[in-house]
Specification:
α2 links the parallel β6 (72-77) and β7 (119-122). The protein has 2 helices and 8 strands, in the order βββαβββαββ. It has one domain (2-144): D-tyrosyl-trna(Tyr) Deacylase, Chain: A (3-Layer(bba) Sandwich), CATH 3.50.80.10. It has helices spanning 39-51, 99-114, and strands at 2-15, 18-23, 26-32, 55-56, 62-64, 72-77, 119-122, 130-144. α1 crosses α2 (99-114). By secondary structure, the chain is α/β, with parallel strands linked by helices. The longest helix is centred in the last third of the chain and has 16 residues, at 99-114.
Length: 149
C-alpha cells in the first residue's frame, strides 16, 4: 500500500460537477493499493498517517499529529501510485490491485480511520475526480507499507 499524504488548508473532491466531499485543515491522502495488500498494510499506513508529526506546534515546529490537532482527512483512491515507469514510456500497472480487490481494501481503510473518531471524507472509487487543494507548507510525505517508508 502506498500513500501520498499532503497537509492542506482545505480540500474538495468533485465528480461530474458536484462536490462529493470537502475538508478544512487536515490531510489529503492519495491511497494506492497493491495486488497483495492485507490488513497488515492497512494497519501500518493508518498508524503512520494518524501519528505523523507534521503539524506545527506553538513554536512553529512540526511536532503535532493529526490526532493532536483534531484535524480532518480526505481519502482518495489512486491506483496510479503503482504505475511502474522504469521500462518504456507508458506506465505498467501490473502491481496495482484489481478494482474489485482494491475497493474492498480501500473501504476497510476508510472504516479503520473513521473508527478513530477523526472526521473523514472520501472520493468516489473508480470515478474521474477533480481534486481542489490548498497545500499548507507545502508538506508532502510518501508512505509505502512494503518498503516501510
Amino acid at each position: 500500500m502506498r500513500a501520498v499524504v499532503q497537509r492542506v488548508k482545505r480540500c474538495s473532491v468533485e465528480v461530474d460537477g458536484k462536490i462529493v466531499g470537502s475538508i478544512g485543515k487536515g490531510l489529503l491522502v492519495l491511497l494506492g493499493i497493491k495486488n497483495d495488500d492485507s490488513k497488515r498494510d492497512i494497519e501500518y499506513i493508518k498508524d503512520k498517517i494518524l501519528n505523523l508529526r507534521i503539524f506545527e506546534d506553538d513554536r512553529s515546529k512540526m511536532n503535532l499529529s493529526l490526532k493532536d490537532v483534531s484535524s480532518q482527512i480526505m481519502i482518495v483512491s489512486q491506483f496510479t501510485l503503482y504505475g511502474d515507469c522504469r521500462k518504456g514510456r507508458r506506465p505498467s500497472f501490473i502491481k496495482a490491485a484489481s478494482p474489485e480487490t482494491a475497493q474492498g481494501i480501500y473501504m476497510d481503510f476508510v472504516e479503520e480511520i473513521k473508527s478513530t473518531g477523526i472526521y473523514v471524507q472520501q472520493g468516489v472509487f473508480q470515478a474521474h475526480m477533480d481534486i481542489s487543494i490548498v497545500n499548507e507548507g507545502p508538506v508532502t510525505i510518501i508512505l509505502d507499507s512494503e518498503k516501510r517508508i
